[in-house]
Amino acid sequence: MEKALKLALVALAIRLLVAPFLGHLWDVKTLQETAFYTIKGYNVYELVYTLSRKVSEASGQPIFYEGYAYPPHLIIIILPFYILYLALGGDPQPIKVSEAIAGVSLLYELQFYLSKDVFLFLAIIKMPMILADSAIVYLLGRRSERLAAIYALSPYSIFITAAWGMFDSIVALALILSILFFERGRYVLSGIAYGLSLVKIYSLVALPVFLLHARNRGFEALKSFIAGLALSQAPTLAFLALNPEAFMYSVVVFHLFRQPSGLTPLRMLNVAENTTLTMAASTIHTLVSLAVYILILATMYRRNVDLKVGVAATLLYFQAFSKVVHEQYYLSVYPILLELRPREARVLEYIVIAYGLVSVGLFLAAPTLLFLVDFRILELHASIVYGDIGYITTSLVGPLIATLLSIVAFTVTLKTIMNLLKP
Amino acid sequence: MTHKTAYLLIALYVFTLSLIPLAGSLIALREWVGFDTGAYYYRNEHLEVRVTGLPEGLGKPRIYVYLPNSSYRPVLLIDVDDRESLVEGFSLFYDSREVKISSRNDTLTITYVFDDFNVSKSIVASNDSVKLVFESTRSSQFYIVFKGKNYTSVNGVDLSSIHGRSLELRNVSKLEFTFTSKIAGRGGGFLEFTSPVDVEVKENVEGITTIAVSFRGEKLEVEVRGYTEPVRVSSVTHAISSLLNHRVTQILLPIAAIASLALGWLIWRRL
Q1: Predicted TM-score (pTM) of this structure
Q2: What is d(CA B116, CA B93) in angstroms, rounded to the nearest whole number?
């Protein structure tokens, strides 16, 4: 058997072992609810929009219901797997919430309760992400077995895909395929694959790079790439036409107005007590980030950098300057960066893992297991998180450690971009 | 641009960001801060008012007082229970069709929309007291439920002597209560009403005291004041308690930023 295929199977096996027992309950429940209501014939964007407006109007703050906030491609991807789960007799909603009003409070863990089918559900619903991870290993393995092994065994990719249940591996695979097709002159397929990567709209930052390279290859290449991209967005346009306001609010507005969080220096503003000053700082940050983006694109244009390098640099730019940088985002660029700058890729991986260990991610991944062991353990867990230790952690230790990691991540990401773009 | 210049620019930017929370806290003291779904807080040197978010729904607002020697761990003074508070027999939490929150300077207003009338509850926080203004769009029967923990007396009546029964007070304009607290030792507070009200005080076995205030009208203002008695604590306890609060985080952020930038520079040079 081909070595790359062997490594891909190893990656698959490891992730399948982890997948049934862990999960970010809220995020996986979002996938569950999306599939559940889509099968019933609902427009999931309308449901999310209605809940978001309710939360926002009631609270008088720009706060959103954290539901399905992505283009519809993921719905199409997960539906067959959800139907398979139902065909096997699974409970349609194995993750239940007693009072699902907002879902943004950290106290929400205690409101969850699970049916025994949750193991099967987690294993099946994460399958597209796990298969994407395995495909990445296979594609990496065809170029370098060492890099494929690193990715297959990476605790970071296992955590995000198999434990957490996030789908950034699909974004990464789509981007890799898009670059591969582009290099082989298959521009329509490249456009389609890139369009699929937009399932997380942050990959939009790489669009100018693709367009620039397509233009360099001639008008036909540009036209074909755009045609492929347009074709891939047929589901997006269909849902947009169904209810433009609900779609735009859920997919675009939600991301634009979210509070700073995750691995970004901007998170320091979260301990600020002056909303006006915070908003002013956020605006300045947006202006600075726009200037940096233009500078990166101009440098790429001037130096005629490789497509893969350009995609990696723009995605890293997003990691550095977005006001929301969750742990999983880095997975979209990690395999590409492993090929280009393995050293920087590993350093960034360690930083993101360290952040994952101190952030709520770990707590959120654990309850699935804890619920089924003993409810009292969950109560103990809650008393630690929300008791004295929780107070100290959330008010002092947590913000300082997260700040430290965010700043280091910011500087390392910027240095990596500079290294990628240097002549 | 050399790498050193680039890093200097990055460091300057990050360090400036790290100073914003501290600068903000100097300006934002005495301002309502929204931080979660419908959740707000207000802090000054003496007290803290928390309005919990939609998922919890309880305690809008909860009023805390700080220990005289520390801003760590404010002590709960009193809690207004939205679930049990009724207007014309309707629960503010369960029966209102809609809830809207708005803040302006030192005033946070929560409006409860019912089918035939609206009720607003304004929370006006000042330096050492909190004024609660209950207002209905028509003359209504109000039943406002306050809750407190470990109360020992209300208007001079020892609560241990009424255990299992309720204490009823008619035409009261001022209520005075005392409580004990593991952290504070002893403390107390006052509720002053702009018009006389009827009060029913009950205590349950878990140390929760319920003060139910009844009145008929369109508007009632309640001034809430609280205090804790200075407690003698060791210098170590005092030092630790002073360390563990969000304001220290704001002071430490620039230091953490410098440390991170130093670490970042070490990695930067090696990459």
Answers
A1: 0.76
A2: 16
